[in-house]
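okkk here we go again. third time trying to get the guanosine-5'-triphosphate bound version out, last two times i messed up the smiles copy paste (missing a bracket lol). double checked this time i swear
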Amino acid sequence: MTLRQKILLLGLVAVSGMFLALWLQYKAYLTQSQAIEAVVRNVSAVVALSHAAHELQRERGMTAINHSKTNAQALAEQVRHTDAALAGIRGDIASLGMALTQLRTEAATGRITPLAILDSYSKLLQRLADEMDRLTSEPEAAVAKTDMVAHTHLMAVKENLGQIRATLGYWTEHKSDDSVVLNRLFRLKSLQEEELRKFGLDASPELRERLAQEFSGLEVAQTLETLAQIAAAGKLPQTLDVQAWWSMATVAVDRLKVVEDYSLELIEKKAELELTQLRSSMRLGVIITLGIGLAVVIMAISATVALLRALDRALGSMELIAASQDFQIRIPADTPDEIGRISRSFNQLLDIAERLLKEKDYLATTDPLTGVNNRLRFAKVLGDEAERKRRTNTPMALVMFDVDHFKRINDTYGHNVGDEVLKALANLVSTEVRVTDFFGRWGGEEFVLLLRDDDCEAAMAAAEKLRNLIASSDIPSVGKVTCSFGVAAWMLGDTEASLVARADKALYESKKGGRNLVTCTQGVTGNCHGRVRCAQ
Ligand SMILES: Nc1nc2c(ncn2[C@@H]2O[C@H](COP(=O)(O)OP(=O)(O)OP(=O)(O)O)[C@@H](O)[C@H]2O)c(=O)[nH]1
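finally!!
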């Protein structure tokens, strides 16, 4: 897998990860918002149930005291209210209507005792309370959990007070079953007080304050006072008027209903607020996740493109250097990033490589003593030139010269001075040769000069010029030094070796002829005079 493919795969994984994170975030939001929506739904169902319970509580109370004709009409009116409230509730609990109709019929026939009727009403109300409990405790992850619990206690307070209202109402009407009524009242009173205490623990300060506000006033005080007196005296008040009791107890129950409605309103508001906050935080979360994800993707793409481009450029230059062996090429290193650093470091390596190659080339092609071209380099250039001459058939000549009696110089002045003489001679000749000529040391005290475009006669003239220059020059430490020259011109069918051999032979002839001479062995006659000889 290439680096490009790996980066592409990494990008795909990163983008998939971003979408996965978004999906998980959305799923969590969905679960949470569904739970809150369920609370909102349940609260509106509880509102209807609470309304129905309130009407049913009132009907129970009125049924308990319904022995005077004056109440019959009011009870009939209340029955209509109860039925209307029950019509507003849905689900299984709606079947409660049938049980209620049956109860009303039984109550009308007078076959069951008023206390049993009261209990039957309370059982129906318990079903409503159970349903409200179920709705307020669902779902588990819902918001306003404590508010719901407080609400449940408040409902219980109201239900107990409703039962107290009905029980005492029954007694004021019938004045019988004292001990049963008293027991009931004590039990209900302590239940109510217990539920009120629990409500105080769970309710929000706002709701507690509302209860304090609403559950007060003359009627509420009178109701509570009546109950307190019964508890203190341990007997029922003989003077309590049924209508007076009904009125004040109903005000107290109605006040609790106001608080109950307010509690549900608060819960609903809280849930709706939570939902709104959840939605806006979800929107913000999605925007932030997408924003960050997008920024990361853009940055990753631009960084990757820049990286791959820089790598391509560096790779292209490296491949070109490897293919061309041209160590003068440099990689573009204009960026301040890591790629730029790598390129600059690579360029530094190229600098070193170039320098080492130059040094190697110099050492391989240069004579270390005299600094002129060595035999290897000379042979290479001669080979190249010979190749060219074979194609162009143009003139070329080789001059070979050797220091005369060099052994004597060494022997007389020492080897070091001999070296200095060779250096001085090489230097002298180097300054004299033309740019087209190629000069080198053949070995020992022997030098060669390639005259690229000269024929034999021109080469002999050049050799004579050099001979004269050397002979007339003062060489440090030793004074005058002479050299013997052999000249050979390129001929058709020549090889490098045959040309060198002829120049060497001519040089030998110069030595044999007395030294400090220029000799050509190719039958040239025109310029052969003085120290220039044309040997056969
Ligand atoms: N100092 C020094 N001497 C060298 C070098 N190379 C060769 N020689 C000496 O050059 C001398 C060449 O001697 P010969 O071949 O007898 O030639 P010659 O004395 O010049 O005599 P002819 O060539 O006949 O004139 C030898 O003594 C070599 O040791 C060098 O690099 N430095």
